[in-house]
Amino acid sequence: MEAMLHISTLHYLVLSAALFLLGVIGVLTRRNVVIVLMSIELILNAVNLNLVAFSRYWQGIHGPTALHGQVFAIFVITDAAAEAAVGLGILIAFFRNKETVNVDEVNLLKW
Amino acid sequence: MHAIVEYIQSYLSSDQTPGAAGNWFWATVYVLLVFVGLSIAVICMNWLERKILAHMQVRLGPMRVGPHGLLQPIADALKLLLKEDIMPAEADKAVFWVAPFIVVLAAFTVFVVVPFGPTHAITDMNIGVLFMLGVSSLAVLGIVTAGWASNSHYPLIGALRSSAQMVSYEVAMGLAVVSVILMTSLHGLGLYGVGAAGSADTGTLSMIGIVQAQLEQHEWFIFKFFPLGLIGFFIFAVAMIAETNRAPFDLPEAESELTAGFHTEYSGFRWSLFFLAEYSAMIAVSSIAVTLWLGGWLRPFPNALSGSTWDLVFSLFPGITFLFLGALCFFNAARMPKHPFFKIQTIGLAGFGAALALIGVVLFIPGVRERVGDIFWFSAKVAAFMYLYIWYRGTFPRYRFDQLMKVGWKVLLPTGFALLILTAVLGFVEPPVAAWLRGVL
Amino acid sequence: MTEPKTLSPLDLDTPDKTHLDANELVINMGPQHPATHGVLRVILRLDGEKVLGLECVIGYLHRGVEKIAENRTYTMFNPYVDRMDYVAAVSNGLGYCEAVEKLLSVEAPPRAQYIRVILTELNRIASHQLWLGTHALDIGAITPLFYTFRDREEILKIFEKYCGARLTTHAFRIGGLQYEAYDGFERDVKTFVNFVKPKIDEYEELLTTNRIWLERTKGVGVISGKDCIALGVTGPVLRASGVKWDLRKAQPYANYKNFDFEIPTGANGDTYDRYIVRMIEMRQSLRIIEQAVDGIPEGPIMAKVPKVMKPPVGEIYHSIEAPKGELGYFIVSDGSTQPYRVRVRPPSFVNLQALDLMCRGQLVADVIAVIGTLDIVLGEVDR
Amino acid sequence: MSPPVATPFFFYLLAVTMLIGGVLVVTRKNAVHCALALITTLLAQAGLYLMLYAPFVAGVQIILYAGGIMVLFLFVIMLISIERTEKERQFNKQWLIGIAAAAALGGLFIAVYTKGKALFPEGRLTYAEAGNTQALADLLYGPHSGMYMFAFEIASLLLLVAIIGAVVMAKKRI
To answer: What ipTM, to 2 d.p.?
Structure first.
């Protein structure tokens, strides 16, 4: 009970791992590309949570300016924005040609 | 018992916001005050908009419910609450239900960081402006989902339009805001970011911090680096109208094209939530503008008319304003037709005037007038913005969608970038140049 | 009832696959739509927001006015024409009365002619004011509507004083007028002229140099003079395209040849030019009214027409310049008391043909501006 | 900043919200519902960032993720019709393999955490959030420790490429 009530870095790591797994399941099992992309966002967020949790842990050791984890989280968010834009762009181009949004129908190298 | 009283009183002597002081009691009171105040403001705004617009358009506006239609907003609210709440058969029930709440929540949550005075804010956040912009941008989600969930052509097009519009104007808005944040770091002492975190030379995102920076620099940011501050303010002033989907950027609800835009299928209580959200969003963006450029709670002419005498004069303004409003009510009560049919209305109007005058008298009490001065100036500045909103609506035709996008991307955005770069350059150059000038003179 | 097969290239059954993929999106605007001025239904074929083509579906306000004429005497039919273009009822009456007079070979006495001109020109101003208000409202400027309605009210008051009705006036009779101008008619008209002159400046102040108004109207709904002539488009729309054609000058009727006025023309044939042309027309109408009021002659107001009208066998086409364009009446008489056939050439109906041409390649929002600028009245389109 | 109140309560509240949101993202048929669930998750995560004294990251999370990226998602979902995809099979054929792989990964996580639990001693910290944004800015562009300046420029280049790529990809005729 004591371990449950004192929120430590490990709590955040477990949460992040659970979220990561959910994202992985989504990516591997869903057919709809949009939902697959959203699952990728879940994965990225899980990583971010990890980074920020560790950043806090690191601050406890090296002082308040040890914010490298948060800087990384910001970079990951930037990356997620780029990924979403390009991914959805591809999705639109794909949908225009094939009229489907299912990943398992992307089985041609050209059409 | 004593401990509780002490806890409650502990905040009063502090010079912090209740959130920063960690005083839960006062934080709750402030939340309630802001909520109630905002609702009253929306009601007043509703009545004022109809009356002012009507007088601009050579008509009278509401005149039937109460004297000069004063009770009209209440009657409207009652009507909306009692009205049947229609849910289209093909609508996505859950999303349709939740969408208005997203919009309202986004519009109200913003007020957590709005500073009505140096201590009159629910809390002060390190990321105040960012928080405000972020939370107000969440309203787009509600609008998009509302349009989609209605499962109908016009709401969908309206929703797509408004989301495209809000997202594109957010960029220009952000640039104008960033230029102000740069200005906060300029005390004429050092360069950006030089020195440790939290030192006097670094800028701030906190809403209270921004106003305090204006206080310390003895300059509202609208006048800073003339005309850069003015241009930034102008960009923001245009973008905020587009953000709140008001005329002349009210394409998402363009009546002549899309009937009512994203909320075409909404009725009754849920429609009134959209209405509430629209008006509180207007107040929210106006208060950002006031905080960032117009010195927030600071009284006008702090430099030209400084000194304790002028402080006293300006602290009388709240009371005078309320007395004036009360006198206006009495004047109109005297002008009421003398027919017995209008007796109740006349008495009501006079009573309302008496209540306003009483408030005005209370505001003259020395202890009170020092405490409400900042709230009054803040509200007065926001009210001026509200008037601008109404004025625009009465004057301008509506932009076409491509023209709207053109204004956003081809005019405001490049101007915003130029503004940002020029502010940075001037901030870099000004201190040494000023020092040199001082040496020369 | 089965829907008749559409003859146009617009196939209503185009599968609306998706918003993204479909090259064409078919949207139905109207008949219940706030910006279609009544019950016009427009089927829009869109590529995104761009209009690829459109088709007008009309007939929702069809009352069979032309058929009714065949079962009414010439005199009895007179009030019916007011119900076509109900915002310019006086003009409609003038056209019909003059056509029947021509058929009967009588002419209204000069005093009647003058009063007719005054009332018709007043009506032209009223019609343009209503047009301006609703057109501006469609483009999003709400205030001009109230200004124009305030001033139009003064015209309607004059009508009411003259003949008792405000909208469907039935002001004229075949052969002249039924009512003598009331006492103070001249004074009222003069007061109105002086009242409305600064008001027109007021409208222009709100719109003419307004940036947003310019952006919304310049280059929108352009139509060339050649196309106008090919489609039979008349009125301010034609004149804004640079063709100086006004029946008041080209085929003077009533006694317009006695008055000095100018025909405004535009150069580009866009919505802005049409707006400017109509604004100038209002001022020119005021000029005509001023001249007419000053020159009303004394004399009878009714020519000698038989109580029971039996025009000789024959046919007649007579057209006048209504506020919206050429309003023509083609009447075939078989010598009986009732016309054999009445065919109306309504300007709105003919002008509406140009909508497709004017909207192609424009955006959806422009369709509303163009419908507004064509100044159609559905009562006249459907008859 | 006063010490946080009821930390465990808020942690578990936000954690449960996040997990429910995540499960809904993976299981819902309707893409719009998925997007709304994801937004809930993201907002709850912003709350967790606040609890971790990372207000700036929380702000960025709200403004960029919830206000920007998710709007983009919703926009695209509305552009492509989803009525048809809702009636189709939702999971692909190798869903069993996928879940097995995820389970294996989960096993790995559990193994790592149980083994390495001792490696995470909690560094207790009670410090004000006030300087967070400034400290981050210092790391990103500050003259003293701006060690991420180059990475920042690369990220902006990445964004530029993404913008151009998205436009090229999505535009029918360039």
So the answer is: 0.80
